C-alpha cells in the first residue's frame, strides 16, 4: 500500500517536475514542439482512417503519412539546430537552419504531391 | 541409282574391314541388277507413246484462242496467223474476222509510212482474206519493197522485202515483177550462212540460229522464184549441202521425236524448239517448191519432226498453235515426204466385252492414207521381254470406218500391261517415194478382264493339332455375315483362288484383310499367294501383343484390287469374337484414334472477360468525417500558437527587408499553390519548370530577408 502510494506520488512528482522544466524552454522551441505534435497527430488520424476502411489507394495513404512524419522529422532537426543549449550547432545561425527547413519541406512536399496520385 | 552405286564403290575402296566390303559387293550386285532391269524397261518403253493426229478438239481450241480483241487483232502478224490457222484446219471464214483483217490490211497498204515488215504481213494476210488492193497502192508497195531490197543489210530486211514481192506477184498476176540482180541478192543473203548449217541475222551479230536458217531458206526460195533468168545451179547445190548440215544438228527426245533448237544465249532473242522447228520446216518446204530434183531429206527424220508437232497435243497459246498447225501443213504439202501416223482410238481393251484391237493410219491432219496394210509383229509384257507372245499377223482393213481391226485378242494375251509392236506396209510401190511410215511403232496396251474368285473360305484352327474348329464358306461376290469365335490359342485361315479369264494365276496389286476392333483400332494383313491359291494364316498367339490385348468383336473386311481387274472388291466378311488374355503392366497401349477434326480444330467455348471488381470504397460520409478530423490538429496548432503568444514583432520595419519578407512569404505561398495545381491538373515537368523559377526567386528573397534578420540578431547579441 505504501509502495503503491509512493509510486503514484513519484509519478506525479515526476510529471510536475517535467512540466516546470518544460515551461523554462524558450518560446521558439515550444512553437517547434507544437508543430511536431500537430504533424504526428495528423498522421495518427490518417492511420486510424486506414485501419477502419482499408488501405485501397495505398500510395495516397503512404504519401499522407509520410508527409506528416517527414515534416515532423525536419522540424525536429530544426529544433536541434536552433536550440541555443546545443553546443554542436553554436556557429550555425538559426536563420540558416530555418532556410534549410523551408527548403527541405518544399522538396518533401513536391515528392508527396507527386506520390499522392 | 547410278549415284547409289558410285557412293557404294567409294565406300568399298575406303573401308578397311573385309566384312563391310563383302556386304557392299552383294548390295552392288543387287543394285546393278536393278539398274539393268531399269535399262531394259526403258528400252521397251522407248517409243511406246501414242501420237494422235489433228482432230476436232484442235478446231474448237482454235476458235477459243484466236479471238478478236475489240474488233481487231493486236497486229498484222496475229491477223495472218489466225487466218492461216482457220484456212489449214478447213474452218469457215468468219465474216467479222475477215472484215477486221481487211480493215487493217487496207490501212497498212494505204499508208506510206508502213515498214516492209508491216507490208509483208499485210500481204500475207491478204493472200487468205482476199481483200481488194488499189492499183495505185500496189504500185506504191512494189516500188517501196524494191527500194527495201536494194537497201537491205540484215537477214530480216531481206526476208520481209523479198517475201512481200513474192506475195504481191502471186496476188496481182498481171504484173511481171522481177528482182533486179537476183544473183547479187542471193549471194548477199548466202553471206549470212555459217558452216554448221545455221544462219546469222546480220553481219555484225555473231550469234547464229536455226530459226534464222529457216527464214533464210524462205528468202532464198523467194529470190529464186522472182529471178528473171535461171540462177547458177552451183549456188543451189551449196544450199542443199547447208540443209543436210542443218539436219545434222537435229536433236532428239526419248520418245523418238526430233526437233531443232538453238542455244539459249539471250532471253529476248531466244526462240523455243517449237518456233525454230516450225521456221526450218517452212523454209525447207518453200525451198523444195522452187527447186527441181529431190532434196533427199531422210524420211525417218521427217516422221520424227511430225511426231514432235503432234506430241504437243492442243497448245494453249495462239502463237504455239499457229506454229504447230503451219508446220504440219508444210508436211502435207507434197514437197517433202508425207508422214503417216499410226494411232489407236483406245489403248485399254476389255476381255469381258471382247474388245477388238483397232488401229488407224492417217496423215497428220487425219486425212486418209494410201492403201496399206498394218501388221502386228510382236507383243511383249513385263514377264516376257524378248519373246513375242503373238505371231506376226495382219490386221483386217474395214473400208467403212477406215480402221485396221484385229477381231479377237490372241489366247496368249491375258489381263495386264503389254507393248504391242506394229508395222505399216504400203501396198503401192510408187507411194514409197511420196509417203513415209517409219519402221516399227510401239504402243502400250492395257488389257482388263474379270478375275474369277473361287473356293473362298474362312476357318478357325486349333493351334496344336491343326484341326478345324469352325469353317465358313464365303461368297465374295455377294453379302457375307460370318460370325466366328476364337481365343488366343487358335489360328484363323482365310483362303481363296484367283484365276484370270485365260486361266492363269493372277497376283493383284492389293489383297488385304482388315480387322477392326470396336474401339476403332485397325490391323491390316497382306494375303500372300503361291500360284493361284491365296492364303492368310493369323496365329493369334503371336499376334496378342500386336492387338494390344484388346478382346472383343473385330469386323473383318477383305480388299482385292488391281487396275486390270474389272471386279475389284472391298467386302465385309463378317466379324470375329476374339478372346485375348489380360494385358500385363508394361503392355503397349493402343494408339490414340483420330479425333473428329471439328471437335479438335473447331471453335472453342467463348471466353467472357471478367473485369477486376472495383475496390470497395468507404461511404462518402465517413471519408468526409475523417477529412474534418484531419483539420482538427491544424486548429489545435493554431490555438496553441496563440496561447504561446506568437507575434510579428521581429518583422523588419525597413522598406527593403520588409518587401523581401513579404515576398518571401508570398513565394512560399505560391509554391504551395503550385503544388495544389500539380495535384489537380499539372504534370511533373510543368511543375518542375515553374518550381525552378519560383525557387530561384525564393532563394534570392529568402536570402535577403534572413540575412537581414541574422545581421539584426547578431547586432543585438554583440550589443
From TrEMBL, chain A:
Membrane topology: Multi-pass membrane protein
One Pfam family per UniProt: DAD
Record keywords, A-Z: Apoptosis, Endoplasmic reticulum, Membrane, Transmembrane, Transmembrane helix
Location relative to the cell: Endoplasmic reticulum membrane
Coarse class of the protein's main subcellular location: endoplasmic reticulum
Origin: domain of life: Eukaryota
Transmembrane segments: 34-52, 58-78, 98-116
Record pathway: Protein modification; protein glycosylation
Quaternary structure, from the entry: Component of the oligosaccharyltransferase (OST) complex.
PANTHER family: DOLICHYL-DIPHOSPHOOLIGOSACCHARIDE--PROTEIN GLYCOSYLTRANSFERASE SUBUNIT DAD1 (PTHR10705:SF0)
Family: Belongs to the DAD/OST2 family.
Record's function text: Subunit of the oligosaccharyl transferase (OST) complex that catalyzes the initial transfer of a defined glycan (Glc(3)Man(9)GlcNAc(2) in eukaryotes) from the lipid carrier dolichol-pyrophosphate to an asparagine residue within an Asn-X-Ser/Thr consensus motif in nascent polypeptide chains, the first step in protein N-glycosylation. N-glycosylation occurs cotranslationally and the complex associates with the Sec61 complex at the channel-forming translocon complex that mediates protein translocation across the endoplasmic reticulum (ER). All subunits are required for a maximal enzyme activity.
This protein's name: Dolichyl-diphosphooligosaccharide--protein glycosyltransferase subunit DAD1
Taxonomic source organism: Hibiscus sabdariffa (roselle)
High-level lineage: Eukaryota, Viridiplantae, Streptophyta, Embryophyta, Tracheophyta
TrEMBL record, chain B:
Pfam families assigned to the protein according to its UniProt record, in alphabetical order: Ribophorin_II, Ribophorin_II_2nd, Ribophorin_II_3rd, Ribophorin_II_C
Domain of life: Eukaryota
Listed pathway(s): Protein modification; protein glycosylation
All residue ranges annotated as the Ribophorin II third domain in the record: 455-578
Domain Ribophorin II second as annotated: residue spans: 340-447
Membrane topology: Multi-pass membrane protein
Domain Ribophorin II N-terminal residue range list: 54-332
Localization annotation: Endoplasmic reticulum membrane
InterPro entries (UniProt xref): Ribophorin_II_2nd (IPR055375), Ribophorin_II_3rd (IPR055374), Ribophorin_II_C (IPR056790), Ribophorin_II_N (IPR055373), Swp1 (IPR008814)
Domain Ribophorin II C-terminal: 611-711
Sequence intervals crossing the membrane: 622-646, 658-678, 690-711
Assigned protein family: Belongs to the SWP1 family.
Protein name: Dolichyl-diphosphooligosaccharide--protein glycosyltransferase subunit 2
Organism: Hibiscus sabdariffa (roselle)
